[in-house]
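WARN no homologs supplied; continuing
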Amino acid sequence: MLDLKTKTVGFVGGGNMAYAVAMGIVKAGLVDPGNVLVSNRSKEKLHMFSKEGIQVTQDNIEVFSKCDIIVLAVKPQIFSVVISELKERGNHINLSQKIFVSVMGSNKIEEMEETLGKGTKIVRSMPNTPCLVGAGTIMISRGNNLTDDEYECVKVLLSSCAECFECPETLLGPASSVMGCATAYFFIAIESLADGGVMHDLPRDLALKLASRAVMGAGKLALESDKHPEQLKDAVASPGGTTIRGLYAIEKAGFRSALMDAVNATTAKL
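OK structure emitted
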C-alpha cells in the first residue's frame, strides 16, 4: 500500500463531512495535520480546521495543485462552479496524477471522469453524518483507473472515521437511502418518542436521552446478534403486554410502508 505519511490530502469544501474525514485521518495518525489542506470560502468554517493544526486556504486551485489525494466535498450543485474555476486557472495541473475521492452524493463516476478528464482516478463514496462521531458508515465504489494500492489507500483513509462497505456503483443509491438518508428518519423517531414521554410527564432532556439510547442500543444489538430483527422484536413483545400494543399502533399508522416509501423516494433522486 502507498505510504500515507508521504502524501498530502486535500479537501475541496470544508463542511461537516470534510471535517469528519479530516479529523479521522489526523486522529488516527495516518497523515500529519500539516499535510492536510482544506479549501472553503468561509473563514469561519476554515477556523474549525486551522485550530486543529490543519492547513487552510480560500483557493480551491491551491488544493488541486498541492495535494496527492483530493476529497471532493462540495455540494453536487457547486461542483460545476469548481470545475469552471479549475479549467480557467488550473490548466497547469496534471489531474491524472491525483486520486479523487467524491463524497458528493449524486455525481456519478463516469460523469466525473468526463469532467476531470479521461483516465482520472476516482473513488465515489456515500458517507452518513454519524461519521462526525466516529460511528459512521461509508459506501464506496471504485473507478476504473486506480491501482490496487491506490484503492487500498483510499479505503484506509475513509475507514478512519467510519466502517466502509464496497458495492457496485449501481447500488450506491439504495445503499445511501438505507444508511444515509435514514439517519434523518431516526432523528424524527427519537424526537417523536421523546415527545410521547413528555406527554406522560418525563422531563424532555431525560426523554431525549432515553429515546436516543434505545435507538443506539437496538442498532448495536441488531449488528452483534445472530438473530433476525423480527426475532429481536418478538423477544420484546410479550403476549398481552405493553410492547405488542405499541407495535399494533405503529403498524396501524403504516410505519413499515412509510419507511419503504422513503427509501423508494430517495433512491429515485440518487
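The chain has eleven helices and eight strands.
OK
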